[in-house]
Amino acid sequence: MRLTRKRFCSFLIALYCLFSLYAAYLVFFGHRSRVPTATSRGFRKGAAPARERRGREQSTLGSEEWNPWEEDEKNEQQRRVKTSLQILNKPKGKTDHSIQIWGKAAIGLYLWEHIFEGLLDPTDVTAQWREGKSIVGNTHYSFLTGPSVVPGYFPIDTGNVVLVLNGREKAKISHATQWLFFAQTLMKTQKLQHLAVVLLGNELCDNDWILKFLKKNGGFVELLFITYDSPWINDVDIFQWPLGVATYRNFPVVEASWSMLHDERPYLCNFLGTVYENSSRQALMNILKQDGNDKLCWISARQQWQPQETNVSLKNYQDALLHSDLTLCPVGVNTECYRIYEACSYGSIPVVEDVMTGGNCGNSSVHHNAPLQLLKSRGAPFIFIKNWKELPAILEKEKTIVLQEKIQRRKELLQWYQHFKTELKMKFTDVLENSFLMNNKH
């Protein structure tokens, strides 16, 4: 009996060992082929919420993103649809009005890239030859620029030309005159029918050299678009043109971003520029130091003007505009300066010294709000001051403005600036069409 019990216990122990070995086999080897499937399911199960979270973040950003020129884009789209219908319904044999722009001054890049929002091929700013095309209404524009665009060595696609010239100083005037004589030769040989000029004028409005070329004085230039507050402006054949940004320093086209609009800016104001002795700029520096506001603003003054930017200096300047609520715009040789338009590009409110400078600039027969009458007439949302002694009070008020108010103010500035450029583009085209097309009918 004892032997039987002993055998029975041994049998149970052996059975237990076999069962344990079998269980171990199943655990370590039996499900290996199914583990990846379970794991991948686990990843997929966790991935869906992650994608949903990302989708919500993107949709939230999309719903809150703000387009400062949405209204202008809608109007432009409607205008293009209308234009397309007009083209489809146009009688055969008639062609659209075409104009070629010869960009022989850096201000031409402001016209093409910033106002017309046109592209250039190639994109390399150092290229010898660059060109682009754009359509505004029924007018087809082509644009040529670069050192290789020289008289007699480029194709002339149309009889209607806008010539962009620099008349700021004597050497530039000599170069501009050569281009005008070239255009005159083309007019005499009937290769050109109509010519308009966009002129970067002299800062003192000393532009008498071009008078003899105007059609009303016996010349051949039908229309003149000129920078600064020239007393010649009559809105008939002479129009004011904005100075724009310093494209000759490679200041870029700036796209509004979420952070540009909504981020807190660490500096109250900025001024990066040349400070001339005994100038209002010197007075500005002294006022900032007296109240200690120079510690709250991004200030970088130099004693000598530098015509060229380095990559580092351009980046510093752009950062100053982006990170400042206000941009201080003291007068130089002229009240109007590139800094005003560059501040607008970054949503930094220009604080403009609203005083007339020396020279021949001033009111005209049709405008009596100089200086900066072009900007004022279009309701520029700037802070205008007559004396920098007003600045401390402005900065004290600025310290009390909450972020939400600043965001709204930035939106209004960016909207205004985009609308300003769109208005210029449409008026420019209307003036050219009315002058060139009407003359073609006679």
UniProtKB/TrEMBL annotation:
Name of this protein: Ribitol xylosyltransferase 1
InterPro entries found in the cross-reference section: RXYLT1-like (IPR055286), RXYLT1_C (IPR057538), RXYLT1_N (IPR057539)
Residues annotated as domain RXYLT1 N-terminal: 99-242
GO MF annotations in UniProt: ribitol beta-1,4-xylosyltransferase activity
Region of interest: Disordered: 40-78
Domain of life: Eukaryota
Encoding gene per record: RXYLT1
CDD domains on file: RXYLT1-like
Domain RXYLT1 C-terminal: 248-437
A GO BP entry: protein O-linked glycosylation via mannose
Gene Ontology CC entries for this record: Golgi apparatus; nucleoplasm
Protein's organism: Urocitellus parryii (Arctic ground squirrel)
